[in-house]
Amino acid sequence: MTATDASTDTRSTSGTADRELVDELTAWLEENWDPDLTVADWWERLGVAGWSAPTLPAGSYGRGLSRGDAVIVQSTIAAHGALGAPGGLGLLLAAPTIATHGTPEQVEAFVRDIVTGKKAWCQLFSEPGAGSDLAGLQTKAIRDGDEYVVTGQKVWTSGGHYADLGMLIARTDPDVPKHQGITYFGIDMHQPGIDVRPLRELTGRALFNEVFLTEARVPGTAMIGGLNNGWAVANTTLAFERAGLGSGGGTSAVSAAIPGTVAGHLDKRAGDFVSGAPRAGGGGAGMRGSADLYVKLAQGAGRNGDPLIRQSLARLHTLSEIGRINNLRVKAAKAAGTDIAGMGNIAKLSMSEMVRLQRDVGLQIVGAAGTLHAYDADDRAALDAATGNPFLGVVTELALFAQAPPIYGGTDQVQRNILGERVLGLPKEPNNDRVLPFSELPKNV
User: Fold this and answer.
1) 162 CB contacts (<8 Å, ≥6 apart)?
2) Cα 266 to Cα 162: distance, rounded to the nearest angstrom
């Protein structure tokens, strides 16, 4: 068999498996999807059947599928006209982390409520003095009987304003090196002592928050991965975050309904949240269809003949295809029992490049109109009417938002450091932070 024959045979096998997956899911959707169900009832069916988070293990409300297969699942649900899985950081980060490090009791207590959309989660990692140096966090959790008392401040907390629980990392032992004295908890956000305050962004929205914890309490049973093992657990969360945010990391099929008890969507009719329109995402979810969106935008504006714009569009398409192909490479590697080191970091870096490219080519296409931006719903409607271009707001919002993805989820510089040190084996900068107790290290002031 020639190399070409082998490649064709692999694609054929993969295509057959993909068709079988689509056929199985389609049959399930035909039997179970009903737009008149409440969001809660529909997500209960979707989550318990393993279709909300199909990459989770079969024993943790998943199906053990690859990320590439999960994209097929999401796309099939959207194509069927059904409501997608509950979005947010619970599904993206908390569920796979708990499935990896949690006990069976914690999987049942936490993961089921995530995949069925009953509870929304946020991520309580970054602090004002501990962003890129996350292990320098100073939020403390002091044991009090069977509970821990938590005091500190977190910042850049996505979705904190509608979260029911938070992925919290806090310092439980200041007298050991900083990476060794951190513990990971699932903390109840609806309790005295937790104050969530929105942070207004350049776009006019407030997706992020700062969170103040003043003697908040968390039970020891909500400790994930064991006492003082939080750095390892947090790195698992960060790995899922980088993979999910990276190019090729998702699709636009994630639900328009918001999970959890705060948003008030669970009792609404599921069919009312189904839309055929693509949704812009802050990471991988918005990447895969972006080239097509900007091509259509250039055609509509009569700018598709501009050679510089055409070159940028070709580059955007190329980066999107590389992300898709890398997904397939990871899938093939895992099927063979191996992995591709650093691929999540590479995908995150690629996503950062794509959002910068979207910003630049989008503003090139719309020209002077790119100086106009609306900051609330009424102004957006007025701007659409005045310009006759309903896509202008998408362009300007992505342009303003483009500064964020290269920072959140680990800056581009952090991603390159990880690739250099952990994948290529390059030496770290000399320091004492892994040998000195945290209490003896100099602190940011």
Assistant:
1) 120, 258, 260, 262, 263
2) 13
**Spatial CB neighbours of 419, under 8 Å, sequence gap ≥ 6:** 342, 345, 346
**pLDDT on residue 14:** 62
Domain boundaries of the chain, sorted by first residue? 3-118, 121-228, 270-423
Burial class (CB in 10 A: 0-12, 13-18, 19+), 270: buried
Question: What does the DSSP 8-state code read for residue 422?
Answer: I
Bridge partner list, 148: 143, 218
Class of domain 121-228: mainly beta
- In the numeric block, the tokens 């389609």 are attached to 26
**Is domain 270-423 in CATH 1.10.600.10, yes or no?**
no
* pLDDT at site 202: 87
Contacts 24+ apart (CB under 8 A), 362-365: 362/294, 362/297, 362/395, 362/396, 362/398, 362/399, 363/395, 363/399, 364/303, 364/306, 364/308, 364/309, 364/312, 365/294, 365/297, 365/298, 365/301, 365/303, 365/309, 365/395
Mean pLDDT, 10 residues at a time, over the chain (445 residues)? 44 72 97 97 98 95 91 93 95 97 97 98 95 92 98 95 97 96 98 96 89 98 98 95 67 72 96 66 50 90 94 94 89 87 91 94 94 89 89 91 88 92 90 85 71
115 vs 28, 80, 393, CA distance in Å? 17, 20, 32
Fold (topology level) of 3-118: Butyryl-Coa Dehydrogenase, subunit A; domain 1 (1.10.540)
| Pairing label, strands 165-171, 121-124 | parallel
Paired with 170 in beta bridges are: 183
Asked whether the beta carbons of 439 and 138 are under 8 A apart, the reply is no
Instruction: Give SS3 for 197.
Output: strand
**What is the residue whose two structure tokens read 């409501």?**
83
Of 218, 193, 249, the closest CA to residue 110 belongs to 218
The pTM (predicted TM-score) of the whole model is 0.82
Looking at residue 292, its pLDDT comes to 86
Instruction: Give the chain's radius of gyration (CA, Å).
Output: 22
What does the alpha-carbon distance between residue 328 and residue 316 come to, in Å, rounded to a whole number? 19
